[in-house]
Design brief:
heterodimer, A: about 120 residues, mainly beta, 7-stranded mixed β-sheet, 4-stranded antiparallel β-sheet, B: about 110 residues, 6-stranded mixed β-sheet, 11 strands
Chain lengths: ~120, ~110
Amino acid sequence: GAVVSQHPSWVICKSGTSVKIECRSLDFQATTMFWYRQFPKQSLMLMATSNEGSKATYEQGVEKDKFLINHASLTLSTLTVTSAHPEDSSFYICSAPWRGRAEDTQYFGPGTRLTVL
Amino acid sequence: QKEVEQDPGPLSVPEGAIVSLNCTYSNSAFQYFMWYRQYSRKGPELLMYTYSSGNKEDGRFTAQVDKSSKYISLFIRDSQPSDSATYLCAMSANSGYSTLTFGKGTMLLVSP
């Protein structure tokens, strides 16, 4: 399988500040990564698709100016929550596609819990 | 009708029981089927991957896909308390590079 990491795992910030979350593919290159948001007891909601070297594609209803995505290299994508507010508090998870001998699917990072005070 | 239906549970079973988890879907274009396990406050972990129809076994886990009925299942044999988690079914029409459609997840509780 493939390993995807995220940093930080947990962040607390004050309202109005910006927070950056990193997603890395550790043992493979990922030209595409996906960012999800998950509220308690709910399933994952796709926010955007991050593409290396080009602009991210955002899902309907997701504010691109609030959730800035930068796919700077083949192993790193970042999500910046700008001017965070308490309603942005959530669990943010990234994933990367992996195509191996026996599978063609997505592997997920461990997630980042954001709490905005 | 939602694209993927999954009973949210919780499903409570005693240790050692056989667990059956299921999802139904409506989009006949889906070809890639996954089961992810998610522990509380953790990211989803890939458990089983199946392309098209058929069965796949890995240790105590068996995944089944019936495309004619648009129905997928995950069986867990000899369930353990450590299996207590939320199980998410996911599927896509194309490769892993395309977006996944998830079920709501089923919470499983295995009591000692």
